[in-house]
């Protein structure tokens, strides 16, 4: 059993660390958070350095990173800038993965190199006002009329739609089929007449815009879809383990960032004539954070390793996602506790983690849903 990253992965992580230390200083992270804007400049630089091509195979202009490589990348990215890593996952990885697995050769040739060069961005729209955890009960309707699909309905919680050139839109194309069948993944240009995108205000992850989308008689060409008609839900399921690894990597990197900030602070802050790091109760918190992050990281890389070996790991990836998201939430909470009133101030970074961490327990399946997935596998 080998728990070490290989030489290439270590070199990649070190190069990314140097790049982000230079191009993504904490002042930039704060600016994007305060101004609630997508880190466009950083993504342009990531594209120039070839980092946007990591999840895309060499054949289509990328560097063909494995799931483990991508986990290393996202963990490091999230340590510096969690919302940036989430933007990367949403606007690059989800679409690159879906197109690579289910797109036509023509779509792969035209879209994947553009993603790698940073010329196009994506959003993914599954959730609706009345279908969240029960996502397959979605109601947005797509009807084929001649050579066009006509789409009507409302989507909820679509990240990155403000900056997306395309939205991967899940809609019901067959109302008579069982709910998990009859769903198709459409490729929607958000500028199409009848599409209205409204930005929602939210607690954290401010650089990643969140939207509701209204679709009124939206007409798109018959072939504007990824994968087969009525097979969209299977697309989502097939890539779920990989996507849970990506989210876990973001959580682990961000949790480590909370711990490192807590260590720095508790070594500097003095009360009762000594460093607060020397109080036993502080040390217990630091030790718990270290233990939980270490465990979450091992679960993440076990799962990534299984994905790379094409071994089904529904349970393991759900465990990694659950452990890492709850670890991140607790790390942010403990970080806030250790900083006392200072953590509550906007000029310190822990409050941002505290706001951002909550999404980790919601997106990609809530903690309750992940527990259902794990226990279902256990009771099979
Ligand atoms: C910031 C943000 C970004 C997002 N980005 C996207 C995106 O880009 N694309 C997209 O499609 N979606 C996105 N989502 C939506 C996200 O995936 C959903 O919020 C999530 O799946 C939960 O759905 P819901 O909010 O409707 O909650 P609900 O499903 O209504 O759940 C409410 C509560 O009930 C619990 N619950 C539900 N079912 C069960 C059950 N069977 N057993 C026990 N408890 C249960 C849940 O765990 C939760 O605690 C985003 C959400 C947020 C907040």
Summarize the structure.
The chain is of the alpha+beta class and 380 residues long.
* Nearest-integer average pLDDT: 97
CATH topology of the largest domain: Butyryl-CoA Dehydrogenase, subunit A, domain 3
Query: Helix proportion of residues, in percent?
Result: 40-55%
Largest sheet: 4 strands, antiparallel
The number of domains: 3
Give the name of the CATH superfamily of the largest domain.
Butyryl-CoA Dehydrogenase, subunit A, domain 3
Extended strand count: 9
- Ligands, ions, cofactors: flavin-adenine dinucleotide
Low-confidence sequence ranges: none
Q: Describe the strand arrangement of the main beta sheet, using strand numbers.
A: 2-3-7-6
Shape: globular
Category by helix and strand content: alpha+beta
Number of helical stretches of at least 4 residues:
12
Order of helices and strands: HHHHHHEEEEEEEHHEEHHHH
Strand content: 5-15%
What is the radius of gyration computed over CA atoms, rounded to a whole number of angstroms? 21 Å
Query: What's the CATH class of the largest domain, please?
Result: Mainly Alpha
Tell me the distance between the termini: 28 Å
CATH architecture of the largest domain: Up-down Bundle
């Amino acid at each position: 059993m080998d728990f070490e990253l290989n030489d290439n992965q270590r070199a990649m992580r070190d190069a990314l660390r140097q790049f982000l230390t230079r191009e993504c200083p904490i002042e930039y992270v704060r600016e994007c958070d305060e101004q609630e804007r997508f880190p466009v400049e950083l993504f342009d630089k990531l594209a120039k350095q070839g980092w946007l091509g990591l999840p895309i195979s060499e054949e289509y202009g990328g560097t063909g990173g494995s799931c483990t490589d991508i986990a290393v990348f996202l963990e490091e990215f999230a340590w510096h800038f969690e919302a940036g890593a989430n933007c990367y996952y949403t606007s690059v990885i989800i679409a690159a993965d879906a197109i690579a697995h289910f797109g036509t050769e023509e779509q792969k040739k035209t879209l994947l190199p553009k993603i790698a060069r940073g010329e196009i961005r994506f959003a993914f729209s599954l959730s609706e006002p009345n279908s969240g955890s029960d996502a397959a009960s979605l109601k947005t309707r797509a009807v084929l009329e001649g050579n066009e699909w006509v789409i009507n309905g409302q989507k909820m919680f679509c990240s990155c739609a403000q900056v997306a050139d395309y939205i991967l839109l899940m809609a019901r194309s067959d109302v008579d089929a069982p709910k998990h069948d009859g769903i198709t993944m459409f490729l929607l240009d958000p500028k199409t007449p009848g599409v209205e995108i409204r930005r929602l205000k939210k607690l954290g992850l401010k650089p990643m815009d969140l939207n509701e989308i209204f679709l009124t008689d939206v007409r798109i060409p018959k072939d504007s879809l990824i994968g087969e008609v009525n097979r969209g839900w299977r697309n989502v399921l097939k890539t779920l383990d990989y996507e849970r690894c990506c989210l876990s990597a973001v959580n682990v990197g961000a949790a480590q960032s909370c711990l490192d900030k807590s260590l720095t602070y508790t070594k500097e802050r003095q009360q009762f004539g000594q460093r607060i790091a020397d109080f036993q109760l502080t040390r217990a918190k630091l030790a718990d954070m270290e233990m939980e992050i270490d465990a979450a990281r091992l679960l993440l890389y076990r799962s990534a390793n299984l994905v790379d070996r094409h071994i089904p790991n529904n349970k393991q990836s759900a465990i990694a996602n659950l452990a890492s998201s709850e670890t991140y939430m607790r790390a942010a909470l403990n970080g806030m506790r250790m900083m006392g009133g200072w953590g509550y101030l906007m000029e310190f970074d822990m409050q941002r983690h505290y706001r951002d961490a909550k999404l980790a327990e919601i997106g990609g399946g809530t903690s309750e849903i992940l527990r259902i997935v794990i226990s279902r596998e256990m009771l099979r």
